[in-house]
Amino acid sequence: MTDALIAGSGPTGLTLACELALRGVSVRVLEGRSEPHRESRGKGLTPDSLEVLDRLGAAERVSATGTRGLILRKYFDGRHIDDTTAGDGLLIGQWQVEEALRERLAGLGVQVEYRARVTGLTQDATGVTALLEDGRSVRAGHAAGCDGGGSSVRKLLGIPFEGHTDATETMVIGDVKAPGLSRGFWHQWFTSEGGGILLCPMPGTETFQLQAMPEFLENGESLPASLESFQRLFDRHARVPGIRLADPTWLSSWRVNVRMAARMREGRVFLAGDAAHVHPIAGGLGMNSGIQDAASLGRILAAALTGPAPDTALDAYEAERLPAAAHLLTDTVERHQRVMAAVREPGRGTEAGMA
User: Could you name the CATH architecture of 166-256+343-353?
Assistant: First the structure.
C-alpha cells in the first residue's frame, strides 16, 4: 500500500510529494486536470520558499527561469511618477514553479497522475481510500488535500471553511502579449478617477500578467475577463497610444476571499495550501504559504511513519500551521488595505503590500 496520497499537483502538492519522496515515503499524486496548465497565477517566490526548493533540489532551475530586482514603474493619470524595486523575492510564473517541481519529482521516480479527480473519501484504522471520478479507487496510509480553495477533499471531510467573501472587491486577471511595451518594468497605472491596471512581464515568456479592476455594467455587475475588456481598461488607465493587447492564454477573475479551515487534520487526512486557507493576494503569499505548509507536513508525516508514536507526532502539523494560517489571513488583509489606500496616491503602488 502506498504511504501517502496527494490530491492536487499545484506548488503545494508537488512540494509535499518531493518532501516525502526524498525522505523515503512512497507517494502518489492525483490531479483532476488532463494536463499541466501554463497560467502565471501566483508569480513570486520568497526567500523562505526558495530555501525549501533548494533543499528539494529544484531551486537551481527556478532561479535560472525567474527574474530578480524587477522595477515597479508607477504612473498616475498617464504620467510616469516613480520607480521602486519589487523586493528580494524571485519573479516567476506559478506554472514554471510547478514544471520545475514535476521535473524534480520525476527524478525521484514519481509521476503526476492526470484525469484523476477525487470524488469520494473514506478512512479506517489502517488507511484511506479515495474514489476517483472514473470509478477507480486508490488506497494509501494517509492522504493530503492540496487541491485548492474549492478543495474536494475538504468538502468530503465536512471541514468548515470559515470566513467571508467580499463580492464588491473584484479583479480581472490574465496572461496577454503587449507588443511594443517595455518588458523591463512591472507597469502600474492608476488614475485620480479610481481604478487602475498592472502589467507584469513574465520571465521566460513573451506575455505579461495583467491585473485590473473590472468594468461594470449599469446594474453594478462586473464584466468578465476578456481581451476586449482588457484593451478598454488599458486605454482608459494607461493612456499609451499604439499598444494593442493580444494572444490571451489565460483569462480569469478574482474576488476577496478570507477563509480558513476549522482544522487541518481529520484522522489520516490533512489539508494544505489553499485547501486550508485563502486570503487576499497582496504580498504574493498564497503560493509561498502553501509551500511552507507542504514542507511542514512532509517533515512531520515522514517522521511519524518511522517513529514510535505516529498519531501523536502527526498532531504537530496542525499545531504548527493552523496558527500560521490565522496570522497569514490577518497579515494579508492588512496588506490589501494598505495597497488599496496607496494606489490612490501618485507614485505609490503594490509595493505597499510587500512590506
Answer: 2-Layer Sandwich (3.30)
